[in-house]
Every structure is written in structure tokens, then in C-alpha cells.
């Protein structure tokens, strides 16, 4: 068998040039927000995309969290609307203002399957 000397790797001596398929990182990593020490006395907002059974899931989560942190408060998903619906852009754009006005300390978001 003859060696193909027209191929770019014909004289590679077993070494080949490769490229990383992901390319270079476009975003810099950011430091995460500090975790809350406790949920007692905190206010948790529930954001839902109206997919799956979020209404049932949030009820179960609320019950479980209250059992462990009796002084926790919740702002229901009903206050915010569908975070994945026709008004999604407006709802998400207004979230920072609304969360601050409601004194929200943490968020449970999604719960869809």
C-alpha cells in the first residue's frame, strides 16, 4: 500500500490537527448570589410556565417548605401570570420591579415537565 502524500495529514507521524467543536467561550462566568441562611421569615415567589401540573406541585412544595420553615411566606404563581405564554416578554421584563416591590427573597421557577 502506498502512502497518500497529497493529504494534509500524510506526513503527520501519528499526530493530527483537531478542532474543539464548542468554540471559544462567549460569556464570562458570574459569581452566584449568596445563598439564604434560612427560609424562615423570607418571602418566596412562585413562577410557573403553566406546563405540567405546577398548581399541584407548588401546593406540595409550599406544604413541605412550611413544615420545615414555619415563618416562610409565599407569593403565589397566580400573581405573576404565565412565564411562557403570549405575555411572556412583558411578564419577565417586569419581574425585577415586581419582585422588589413584593419584598421577594427567593424564587421557585418552572416546575413544568
Task: Explain the overall architecture.
This protein is an alpha/beta fold. The chain contains two helices and three strands, in the order βαβαβ. A three-stranded parallel sheet has the order 2-1-3, with helices on one face. Strand 1 (43-48), helix 1 and strand 2 (73-75) form a beta-alpha-beta unit. The protein is elongated. The termini are far apart.
Give me the secondary-structure topology.
Elements: E1 43-48, H1 54-68, E2 73-75, H2 88-101, E3 106-110
Parallel strand pairs: 1-2, 1-3
- Give the topology string: H per helix, E per strand: EHEHE
Query: How are the strands ordered across the major sheet?
Result: 2-1-3
Specify the overall morphology.
Answer: elongated
**Secondary structure tally: strands:** 3
What percentage of amino acids are in beta strands?
A: 5-15%
Low-confidence stretches: none
Mean of the pLDDT scores?
Answer: 86
Distance between the termini: 57 Å
